[in-house]
Amino acid sequence: MFINSKEDLINYFHQGAKKDLLIGVENEKFLFDGSINSRATYQKINQVLNYLKKFGWKEIKEGKNIIGLSQNGKNISLEPGNQIELAGTKLKNIHEICSESFVFLDQMKKACNDLNLKMISVGFDPITKIENVPKNPKQRYKIMTIEMPKQGKLSLNMMYQTCGTQINLDYISEHDFKMKFKLASFLTPVSVALFANSSIKEMKLSNFLSYRSKIWQNTSRGGLPEIFLEDMDFEKYVDMSLNMPLLFILQNAKHIKSEGKTFKDFIKGDVKAIKNNKPTLKDFEIHLATIFTEVRLKQYIEIRSLDACEWDCHCAGPAFYTGLLYGNLDEAYEIINKWNKSDVMNAYVEAPEKGLKTIINNKSILEWSKIFLNLSRNGLIKRNIKNNSEKDESIFLKSIENTIANKKTKAEKTIDAFKTKKEINFFYE
Known about the structure:
Blueprint: H1 6-14, E1 23-33, E2 38-39, H2 42-52, E3 58-62, E4 65-71, E5 74-78, E6 84-87, H3 94-115, E7 117-120, H4 139-147, H5 155-161, E8 164-169, H6 174-186, H7 188-194, E9 200-201, E10 204-205, H8 211-217, E11 222-223, H9 234-242, E12 248-251, E13 254-257, H10 263-268, H11 281-288, E14 292-293, E15 295-297, E16 301-307, H12 316-325, H13 329-336, H14 341-354, E17 359-360, E18 363-364, H15 365-383, H16 398-406, H17 410-420
Parallel strand pairs: 11-14
Antiparallel strand pairs: 1-2, 1-6, 1-7, 1-8, 3-4, 4-5, 5-6, 8-16, 9-10, 12-13, 15-16, 17-18
Helix pairs in contact: 1-9, 2-3, 6-13, 7-14, 7-15, 12-15
């Protein structure tokens, strides 16, 4: 079906509303060749993908090249610098989310052991200079490598040197979306500080706790737009999307440059590169996936402000946000609704460097983290979803509890350890 008007797109988001709220998580990992301590090439990644097929994964191809795997609603995909991403299926609770993640990580561990690879779970590659990061043959990345730096000076660093954790949460209605989207946006500096895990760059201190976040603030089509701190609704998000230039258009399995045309131009039939064809909803979905803001809307809300982390905190971020957005939305929203927008934006800029010491509304993020952790815990307890051992989802907050109790993020622990262990093997899981 062709898109003919803005109303078609607004209706698309309305159709995303759900009665049964599910959770989806995307985890990204760096892989290094163990024999030479350098980022894994596409050839090496190809071996990994073929290895994983023994666990029932089916290959996804672009032309003759394997670019990913799929299995029962899950996908393994390649990021521009051959980072591996698991996009999990939508699940009911954090117990299931955590189980899914650990099955994948166990499979990856076996692949790494047998193929002499090593895995690093941090927000920024601590070792490799950008000019030494190997590429892969995915078509879209060739276009993005050319176009992205035009509007964001660190866009290529984002593409080739970062890894994150994304959390996907549903909305019941437009009103529910507005509250959840605003809460997630206001909590972005809290998230950046609390989950900071990218303090090393090229085997030196980066002078940031979340260098990844600093990069995303200087990425084309990224960051935290001030409009997100207002009462965002479906129409406003559509307007933003319509006026944003297309990165590329997928037609006949080929990625085509859009030559600066916006999605609004696409609807008008004013894109000569594709013979003035009009877009479908699939085209719109592709366009939405090229918006790289800290929070974004598809037919669900995607929270993108967390650095990648190791096994001990893998489930903590999804649990934290599930407890707030699904278990204790009203109370959490009441707090952030009193915050000053400019204060939040300042905190967002400062959080990558200052971490938990960053101030919002006259309190440190450390103090705010205590408050929101308690709200999240109560929300998860209220959900009362238990595992076979009769433990509810709040058990997955342990990593955050330790961070707050010790007043030290993973990034700061890494800095302390790195000062005494300035070696490559320090980073490998």
